[in-house]
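User:
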Amino acid sequence: MAAEAYARTWKEQREPLLLETSVPGIFAAGDLRAGAMNRVASAVGEGSMVVRLMHEYLAMT
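Assistant: Predicted structure:
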């Protein structure tokens, strides 16, 4: 998502984490992301990234 689009929808004081949607704490991976490659390996890799990002998000809350 473009930075200007986040400026309209992002309400938190921090920058969104990688793969985080405009809703804090909700992450998107694989085919859900705009411009995502339709490949299983990409989705699996992004899904594993979300696990780490979720731990980071929970540590901030």
